[in-house]
Amino acid sequence: xxxxxxxxxxxxxxAAAGSGSxxxxxxxxxxxxxxxxxxxxxxxxxxxxxxxxVAAVRSVDLDVASGEVLLVMGPSGSGKTTLLLMxxxxxxxxxxxxxxxxxxxRETDIATAPEKQLPALRSHTFGFIFQDYALIDALTATENIxxxxxxxxxTGAAASHRATKLLDRVGLAHRATxxxxxMSGGEQQRVAVARALANDPPVLLxxxxxxxxxxxxxRDLARLLRSLxxxxxxxxxxxxxxxxxxxxxxxxxxxxDGQFRPLTSMAVDPVCRMAVETTGAHVDGQGGRIWFxxxxxxxxxVENAASFG
Length: 309
Fold this sequence. Notes:
By secondary structure, this protein is of the alpha/beta class. It is built from eight helices and 15 strands.
């Protein structure tokens, strides 16, 4: 397969994963069935007022099914992190609704829930995985997880037992007494995943979870997230630039300027592997036109095209 064919094939698989796109609206796959765990309608976040107002997320509709791995990609500043923070009740939207369906089938609109209810909603509904791990270095791996269990109402020996089981599940039982500064980046992120599972959440929210990991550890974490979605039937929503995560995603959505866009209108930059619009920097080859995110990537490709074959 030549470079152009490989580029088109990569974006083609992504388009299939995100099929059914209508720009602002994204429904959960029909095969998932049942009530979506997250049902978002008209979600908007605007910063500032009047002439200085900036819309970070604009009238987004989204359904996320139980057991689904959803990957949201897009350029820096596209609204990905703002969207994730709103989904996790860490940031109030300017308008719209975010209906959460719990494991007991109760539903709550976290966009309009009273502020005093939000800590309990978060601790029983969401597990958060951050790019920088966000572990407490004064605590051991077991204690970091137990603290999260405490917030969800599990305390004492029960919390320690839960932490021990989760460390074993992510393959780190032997690191139970280690502190974050004594662990590798991959180990710290696995502890962070175990901590996110402490409250048995219906939804895992991950912000650039592989950004600080090398290729091998990034793939291992991706497979772990896929396994958790399948085994626990929890929904996993990931925002990331990492193309490796496409392999484990049920759907890939492209967010730009605060709105979802069809992946069929995107191409893959063969140098940095970012999805890019089919405008701007490009070269024409025997197989067709190849698009780039910047003149820098285009120049690198032109100077050494064989290395991207």
